[in-house]
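4.2 Preliminary Data

To establish feasibility before requesting continued support, the project team ran the inverse folding procedure on a target of 247 residues. The structure was first converted into the token representation described in Section 3, and no sequence information of any kind was made available to the design step. The complete token record follows.
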């Protein structure tokens, strides 16, 4: 994992999760911020954890983040970042799920995908180091703090990482709108699974698709042709992957 860095997270839920994760160093609250239950929960959690809380001008928070809702926390490390070597050395459970994002560019989509992955009990999230969204404060906020708990491997070469996961016994499943089989046509394979989703529009890169052991789609019944990437991931995790773990 990466060493400590100076960073910040914004928004009441993300700040509360940073305090829970034990990485918050200081909480800044805007002068005059409405003392909602959410803000009271943040201040109470900070007090219980011994994290100092300081009131500042709202302009100070505006300079640190957008949509901060009156609260920002300085943290020691924004996310649990791994490299490829650390990822494959994690010691996965026999039924581990890893989520792989191939070219997701929007921090909101990264955050939403991380939120779904963490809620589904995924062991790790994988994304590119280049031409992909970074785990910015906006992504952490969109993840509702999930990026503070979910190990996130940022790798230079997605196809190579998939090969290394396959060496560890993972079945690689790609979500592909053109795949003839849907997630309802067959059960998810047992054992370790890596589920891959590509960028909106372009989808998975060719070499990534070639590394997949199985391609599946999500059946669409309305007039909209597809779901966005993070919504597709959530459907696949909760309607395809997790039911296979409950049998």
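Position-by-position output of the design step:
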């Amino acid at each position: 994992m990466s060493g400590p860095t100076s960073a910040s997270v914004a928004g009441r839920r993300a700040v509360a999760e940073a305090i829970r994760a034990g990485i918050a160093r200081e909480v800044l609250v805007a002068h005059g911020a409405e003392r909602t239950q959410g803000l009271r929960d943040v201040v109470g959690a900070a007090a219980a954890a011994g994290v100092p809380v300081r009131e500042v001008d709202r302009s100070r928070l505006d300079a640190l983040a957008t949509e901060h809702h009156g609260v920002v926390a300085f943290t020691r490390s924004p996310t649990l970042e791994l490299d490829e070597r650390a990822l494959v050395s994690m010691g996965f459970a026999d039924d581990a799920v890893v989520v792989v994002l191939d070219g997701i560019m929007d921090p909101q989509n990264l955050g939403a995908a991380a939120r779904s992955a963490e809620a589904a009990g995924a062991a790790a999230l994988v994304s590119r180091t280049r031409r992909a969204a970074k785990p910015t404060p906006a992504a952490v906020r969109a993840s509702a703090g999930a990026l503070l708990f979910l190990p996130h491997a940022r790798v230079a070469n997605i196809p190579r990482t998939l090969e290394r996961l396959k060496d560890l016994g993972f079945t690689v499943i790609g979500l592909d709108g053109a795949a003839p089989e849907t997630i309802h046509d067959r059960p998810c394979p047992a054992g370790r699974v890596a589920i891959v989703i590509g960028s909106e529009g372009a989808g998975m890169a060719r070499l990534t698709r070639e590394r997949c052991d199985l391609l599946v789609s999500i059946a669409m019944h309305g007039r909209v042709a597809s779901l966005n990437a993070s919504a597709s991931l959530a459907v696949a995790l909760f309607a395809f992957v997790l039911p296979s773990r409950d049998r």
